[in-house]
Amino acid sequence: MKKEPVKIKERQAKVRAKDFDEVVLGYSEKEALDEAARCLQCKNPLCISGCPVGIDIKTFIYKITQKDYIGAYKTIQEKNNFPSICGRVCPAEYQCRKACVLTREGEPYASQLAISIHFLERFAGDFGMKSNTIKPSHVSGSMPYVKKVAVVGSGPAGLSCAGELARSGIKVVVFEGLHKLGGVLRYGIPPFRLPRDILDYEIDSLKKMGVEFVTNLIVGKNKDIDELFKEGFNAVFLGLGAGIPSFLGIKGENLCNIYSANEFLTRVNLMSAYKFPEAHTPVNIGKNIIVVGGGNTAMDAARCALRLQKINNIAAEATIMYRRSEVEMPARRLEIEHAKEEGVKFKLLAKPLEFIGDEKGFVKKMRCIQCKLGEPDASGRRKPTEIPGSEFEMSCAIAIIAIGLNANELLTKVTPALKTDKHGDVIVNPETMETSLKNVFAGGDIVGGEGTVIEAMGMAKKAAKAIVERLFDSLTPH
Amino acid sequence: MNIKISDKKILADISGSKIIQIKISAPDIAKKAKPGQFIVLMATEEGERIPLTIAEIDSVKTTLTIIFQEVGLTTRLLAKLNAGDSLYALAGPLGHPTEIRKYGKVIIIGGGVGIVEIYPVAKAFKEAGNEITTILGARTKDLLILEEELKKISDNFYITTDDGSYGRKGFVTDVLKEILSSFVPHPSSLVYAVGPIPMMRKVADTTKPFNIKTLVSLNALMVDATGMCGCCRVSVSGKTRFSCVDGPEFDAHLVDWDELAKRNKIYSDKEQHICRLYNL
Q1: Which domains does chain B have, with CATH numbers?
Q2: Cα B27 from Cα B190, distance rounded (Å)
Q3: Distances (CA, A) of A450 to A2, A289, A456, B235
Q4: Tell me, what's the ipTM?
Q5: Contact A244 B273 (CB under 8 A)
Q6: Is residue A3 part of a domain?
Q7: N or C terminus: which one in chain B shows less Cβ crowding within 10 Å?
Q8: Would the CA dihedral through B254, B259, B265, B267 be positive or negative?
Q9: How many angstroms separate the CA atoms of A459 and A442, rounded?
Q10: Is A274 a member of any domain?
Q11: Which of A401, A426, A455 is the last residue of a domain?
Q12: Confidence of residue A142 (pLDDT cuts 50, 70, 90)
């Protein structure tokens, strides 16, 4: 058995930091076989308990060792519709890999030695995608649909739910408010982490399964839930995502060139501002870009910013400022490593107090303060406290605030019967994901705040199962 | 989705900047749209998402009328489209509709293309039984739009032009001040103003001493226009609000006008650069 983990091939930091092409290149067949061979095939596999959707990891890795790649792909697909996506964006080191027996107990995240489950998932997913042997189980038009479901939002939750329902022979129409499909997979996650051809492939596969997509339609503005039922939909799934970006609430935060990460990433990813002026949406770039936050969104924003500096021949200086230390950063470890390799600087244990602008209203510097870690807070992470007298200033041409999102209230505000909690998130029955409205289900960030892609997909799957049971049960008289 | 322009009319054309009216067939939006709301559109696939006010809905609720002035690249590209051409994307209606009720006297002020926004609102206030006083302002006579339409629904009607080429020479606030001074405004009266930022700001300054409720509809920059990005944030009474989902209307006396004026110029350099590149 090979002890050392098989390193994944990546494009050289110097080269990749100048473009938006994919950073991680994936395993070759031989590399996948070597890595899969490291799996101990535990009698009682802990890794599975670490997966939010319970993928049979042991079996799919075993199938890879047997060179049954299609089998591996199908095994994953039983629980996860989009292995090529999750293999790229799942924070495996906090999930399956952390649970892997090769990670020592009590570690904050997976050890280097843990099996690279995510890379193997990606390998199987990409293999399945490339091989034409896989055909959707239901081909559109093969039989008339008896039931029809509206899916609101085309992000991870919406796409996952649509796939599940379509597979069960239900007609699905997905309504997306933006002009392009994919939700956060399109506007949030940059192409260098998730190439657009992969996302497009998965969406096309759903179309082939008979899923219909309607863009530019905002449920809550253009249509409400009642109208969907009146139009003949038997159930509705809400996968609206988290909405409103949070700001720090400090002085000077509305100065020009202070972006929410959502705005910055939407401009760059959805609107292709990195291709300005061929694409018409601008984004401002300058020296000293400071990103506030420590999650994946902060890493994505910093790495996009750095690339834009390089593309525009500006000396690259992008800094992530985080009020805790690196261990507490919620970002994927791989993203932190990649950001460092590419030259993103880290200013840890510090937080901004105030933004200071020039006479034209553009931010020029930040007043900050050093922090130290105290006792663990509600999140279980050690709480940062300010160190008196440690204030300092930093030059700042662009600031990007990546500290999270609040609930999207576009639909819930106009649907008072849809019960929400104090955060504005939709309340669901955790068993079925059904909301306070009958036959209206929900999943993803509109339910749980800011989860991962795979968690959203897990909720969507659960909801889809409940929807199928509800709709087909009603066909058989009790 | 095919979003067709069914009609196009040039309303004004001076020194290279046209004001253009287009009608777009969009029954889904037309059925829902109310006065004060806007749409977001993309002229082409590479284009920006820009918000534009819905000027009018036809009687059978299938067509939207949009009026815009050529200012940046997107409006100039939009201006090149003709009847029969398609837009790449269109979504709406967005923003809160104007709260239409009986105030008694409503003074409606429109400046430049802001006149587009006040037109549906003025109509709705008139239908709700209000006495409408309209003050229109334009740089010059040839840039004045919707004069006849607004005159028809107004009980009192005034026009000012900066250069004195039509109506009274001066600003809308000159007339507003006289009106407010000539009668004791009822505390329930309303002033509703839409136009360039300096105009709305002057209106706010003018009405403040009279303690009269004043609403403005802001034209902040937007991207998604559904509350997702925060590009359109404005400080209202010291609090950050999003124009797209919290507005677009706000109390004129509470808006941080300085901040809004500066934020609306974030991309001025890039706008000029790209217009030059595209020879527009």
Answers
A1: 3-94 (2.40.30.10), 105-217 (3.40.50.80)
A2: 32
A3: 38, 25, 9, 26
A4: 0.94
A5: no
A6: no
A7: N
A8: negative
A9: 8
A10: yes
A11: A401
A12: low
A227 plus A107 within the same structural domain: no
Residues 37-66 of chain B with CB under 8 A from chain A are 42, 44, 46-49
Domain CATH for A97: 1.10.1060.10
How many interface pairs between A and B have CB atoms less than 8 angstroms apart? 129
pLDDT digits (tens, 9 = 90+) for A435-457: 999 999 999 999 976 788 888 98
> Does B259 lie at the interface with A, CB-CB under 8 angstroms?
yes
Q: Which of left, alpha, beta for A295 (phi over 0: left; psi -120 to 50: alpha)?
A: beta
- In chain A, how many domains are there? 3
Q: Taking CA atoms, what residue in B is nearest to A241?
A: B228
Is the same domain home to A61 and A97? yes
What's the gap in Å between the CA of A402 and the closest CA on chain B?
Answer: 11
Identify the helix (H) or strand (E) that includes residue A393. Answer: strand A382-395
The residue with tokens 């922090």 is A371
Chain B contact set for A186 (CB, 8 A): none
Per-residue pLDDT in tens (0 to 9) along chain B, 280 residues: 689 999 999 998 887 789 999 999 999 999 999 999 999 999 999 999 999 999 999 888 899 999 999 988 999 999 999 999 999 999 999 999 999 999 989 999 999 999 998 999 999 999 999 999 999 999 999 899 999 999 999 999 999 999 999 999 999 999 999 988 887 666 678 999 999 999 999 999 999 998 899 999 998 999 999 999 999 999 999 999 999 999 999 999 999 999 999 999 999 999 999 998 888 8
CA–CA distance, B107 with B132 (Å, rounded to integer)? 6
Contact list, B236 vs chain A (CB under 8 Å): none
**B264–chain A Cβ distance below 8 A for any pair:** no
Residue A75 lies in a domain: yes
Nearest to B231 among A218, A263, A272 (CB): A263
The per-residue pLDDT for range A360-394, each reduced to its tens digit, is 999 999 999 999 998 888 877 788 999 999 999 99
What is the pLDDT averaged over residues A266-271?
96
Q: Does A200 contact chain B (CB < 8 Å)? A: no
Domain boundary among A401, A418, A442: A401
Q: Same domain, yes or no, for A74 and A123?
A: yes
- Please state, in angstroms and rounded to a whole number, the distance separating the CA atoms of residues B232 and B264: 9
Residue of B nearest to A411 (CA): B226
Residues A322 and A433 in one domain: no
Q: Report the CATH number that the domain containing residue A321 is assigned in CATH.
A: 3.50.50.60
Does B229 touch chain A if contact means CB atoms closer than 8 Å?
yes
Are B91 and A217 within 8 A, CB to CB? yes
C-alpha A347/C-alpha A340 separation (Å) is: 12
Whether A266 and B228 lie within 8 Å, measured CB to CB: yes
| Residues facing A362 on adjacent strands | A256
Interchain proximity A271–B227, CB inside 8 Å: no
Whether residue A336 sits in one domain with residue A309? yes
The beta-carbon neighbor of B46 closest among A253, A256, A279 is A279
Q: Are residues A269 and A329 in the same domain?
A: yes
Q: Which two three-digit tokens encode residue B47?
A: 């284009």
Q: Are residues A421 and A454 in the same domain?
A: yes
Q: Does residue B248 have a cis bond before it (omega within 30 degrees)?
A: yes
Q: Interior CA angle at B15 toward B13 and B17, to 5°?
A: 55
- Supply the range of the domain harboring residue A311: 258-401
Of the partner residues B32, B227, B270, the one whose CB lies closest to the CB of residue A282:
B270
For B138, the enclosing helix (H) or strand (E) is: strand B131-138
CB contact under 8 A, B223 and A218: no
Same domain, A293 and A202: no
The rounded distance, in Å, linking the Cα atoms of A218 and B88 is 16
Kindly tell me if the per-residue pLDDT of A3 is higher than 90: no
Beta strands in A249-381 (DSSP E): 258-260, 289-292, 318-322, 345-348, 350-357, 363-376
